[in-house]
Write a structure and sequence with these properties.
Helix content is 41%, strand content 20%. The chain contains 9 helices and 10 strands. Strand 9, helix 9 and strand 10 form a beta-alpha-beta unit.
Amino acid sequence: MERRTQEDDMTAHVVVGVDGSPSSQAAVEWAADDAVRRGRALRIVHVCEPWVYDIPLQTPPGFRDSVTESCQGVLEDAARLARERAPGLEVDAVLETGRPVEILRREAEDAEQVVLGSRGRGGFTGLLLGSVSFALAGHVAAPVVVVRGSQEWTHGGVVVGFDGSAHSAAALAYAFEEAARRGARLHAIHAWQMPVVGQGAAYAPLVEEIFAAEEGVAADTLAPWREKYPQVEVEQTVVCGHPVAAVCEASEAADLAVVGSRGLGRLGSAVLGSVSHGVLHHARCPVAVVRARGEA
């Protein structure tokens, strides 16, 4: 487990962005549970976008005061929900005015984790498919968790996809630590895709050879993590297929899916790679996107 300094213990906290939508309420509950598991404070952030105050047309008397009161109400409701969810949790509720992406990027600088709902309204509209989640996931140093739905997650499992890259190593580190913290089993999936080759008598042996090699890569990659976290029950899966499909299928029996922000060729090479993008869209549980240390 990563060693923390005294300064880290004084400043680190879990941040959750809220907007009053059902999705953000689910994110608050998830973030409160997460803060308790980590022994951290919870910082709740709601953003009033500046257009509300910059409307050039004349607005009815009391309009701006009403908007401010509404924003404050969203924040207070979220704080109340967090305290009900986790009595005794230290909760800091912050109302900001600005652009959600800029505010949350700033908040992420000293956060241990950032949590968002998958869909929202107002300043966080379309978090899963829109600009805010993609502007944060893979772009900030802290892991970003996108919470889907409002159901409870009680499967007792974490699923992680890995390919041997530095980015997937960061995802593995996070996943093993999270599984240990939760007392959960870990399903580690190494998916590979068959290179384009011609059919022939040598095709079947080639498949077997590649599969054996990929199993060896998976076993070698997981070995040091198994040794570091002997208390974590690990299920290793090596599959010839698309990693998004494999991780999303496994997510149906998991409380959290973990992916790196990028990967090798078959796991994507964009800032938010194809796998993390696909899993964010299709996973059946909350998704953590983890950026490698020192990644630009």
